Task: structure prediction
Amino acid sequence: MQIHELSIMELHEKLENKELTSVKVVEYFLDKISKLNKHGPEVNAVLEINPEALLIARARDVERENDHARGYLHGVPVLIKDNISTNDMTHTSAGSLALANNYALYDAYIVERLKASGAIVLGKANMTEWANFMAENMTNGYSSRGGQVLNPYGLGCFDVGGSSSGSAAGVAAGMAPIAIGTETFGSILSPACNNMLVGIKPTLGLVSRAGIIPIAPSHDTAGPIAKSVIDAAILLREIAGYDELDEITYGANYAELNYLEDIEKATLNGKRLGVLRSAFKNLDPARESLMERAIGECKEFGAMVIDGLEIADSDKIDFSALHYEFKVALNTYLENYTDKTMKSLTDIIDFNFRNKETLRFGQKHLLLAEETEGTFCDPAYIDAKLRDLRVCRDGLSNLLEEHDLDALIVPGNYGSYFAASAGFPAITVPSGVSEDNRPFGITFVGKAFSEKELIKIAYAYEKETNYRVWPKFLSPENC
Result:
């Protein structure tokens, strides 16, 4: 078995037994990046390499030699999405040429936690520019700074998903064992399910938002992207926790849970799962057929499935509240985490107008955000925010409680806005490939801070089906 095929547990064991060193592991993944990222299939998932990764790996080996290993991630490399601040020799740009020269002044809190766990920041992952909140119809995985990320299962013909495109494609291609993505709605779930991976969108408040280039603080969170449920659970445990710079984490009393406790006993037998048909409305026939199979499998594995559930007024959501939050949140980030070369959203919009290569898809969302007054007093914002909470949070809560559900089933990232607006967790796990050979995933959504239960449900499904396979890097003519 090659290193990129190892689970985190297997990698940890080999490091502990001195069968591998962290230096050898980092060298291995750097070699994979060299062969797959800009050469060969040109997946283009990795935007920058941390030039100190090998030196840090040596330090981790020394710590291990002196019995100072800190846990499962000690000496393990991880890719970080390019909108997450790292105070190292890599840039933090959200894929934008406007921030191409930005070195973050501080680590994001989740990066601090990763470093404290002994993990090695391997580099920055390419992403959909501004987390896909720049323009309408921007191609998933495209950024003006990094170019186009490709799906290793179908190069140039299968949607890579976004906006955490490079985080997912990098892990799927074997260029890193694990990665961090971020989600406002769908940006972890989408690339994870499109690249046959596990992605966890945590409860809002479980993971600190500090130091992450934002879209909407009422939705934004970081989360794991990994090859398996257990790998994702290990990574989640390390990034979750209280941060004095992010007040909403004060309520994250579940951060220290052992997500792996009794996980091998996990089963779907007796679980009550509801199928949220409101999330199926825009699903294409090939993926709908795959989802129906996945739902049938849950029944075969002993779950009681309550089908036909709907969220009332789901067609009333219009996403307009995000524009109001983006302007203020971005300006706050620029003030606190950058050298202020770009001081505001206004500066970024002006830069884009002066540099036409950044405007391949336009910047409609940036312009709409700029038009807002930035005080959150606009009745249109308040109305949109309250409507989203009523439809999404109250709608999901009512379904979960009324039917005594352990989780709701949605297809991949379809319906991700429901969980995002509610601040509820979701986990996607591979459910095979559709008739046209595209990877896809089944997603489980639960009530706030139910990650431990969702992880067990996802693990039980994964254990029974084991659908994940490595990509063949199919060219467009063979997709």
Summary: The domain at 3-319+382-478 is CATH 3.90.1300.10 (Amidase signature (AS) enzymes).
